[in-house]
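Let's practice the habit of predicting before peeking. Look at the sequence and jot down your guess about where helices and strands might fall. Then scroll down.
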Amino acid sequence: MALRLVVSLSVAVVALGDRSSHVSVSLGGHHSSHHAQPTYHHQPSYHPQPSYHPQPSYHPAPAYHPQPSYTHGHEPAVPACAANTTKPWCLEDAEYPTYEIKHAAEHHYEKLLSLYADVADLNTELSVERPNTLEEETYLCPSETAYVRPLRAQNTEGKWRVIINNIDVHYQTLTQTTRIEECLTSGDACPLVPECYESKCLQKSIYHRFLVYDAYDQYFPFAIETFKLPASCACLLGAYTIDH
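Done guessing? Here is the structure:
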């Protein structure tokens, strides 16, 4: 009988254990307590953000291309050599770009020679050596004649240009010589002309073609341009007048 009672209580305890998380059972003066373990809930996995943010690729600056030392495009309208003269040409020039011209001439030698052949100076050896004035010959208007090799000159558009002169390239010297004649008394009455004639000394000019250097032309820094230079001094006679 006692054994049956114990089995019945055990069954009751099991049945109650399914309904409650805490069950107290007392058997024969002994107290038994059962504590159910709490259910464990997993926390979501931790996904750390990447701490490194790569910088964009480095793009190096474009290569530096230095400008030529001779700054034709940005030079003053009137070069330094012409600051103290009224003539539209310079026979001396402390800033003449000899090195740059030689370097460009060697690089474009064949094409340069084809241009130079059109403007090569004439054989003026005899003319240069002859006297500028002749004692037995009298001009109506006094003038001064010279054979020059300009280093810079003002073209027909009023712009100063570098003239190719005294440039040594490939065992050849490139020169451009021209004859000029300037009136000494331009605008005055012609000497030895009777006063009954209206007369005036007049400066006459002629157009010359010179080979020039342009430092800012990256493809071919040479060209032929036109220049107006004094060529002769004439006497202009007006109408005959009778003064009483």
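How did you do? The chain has four helices and eleven strands.
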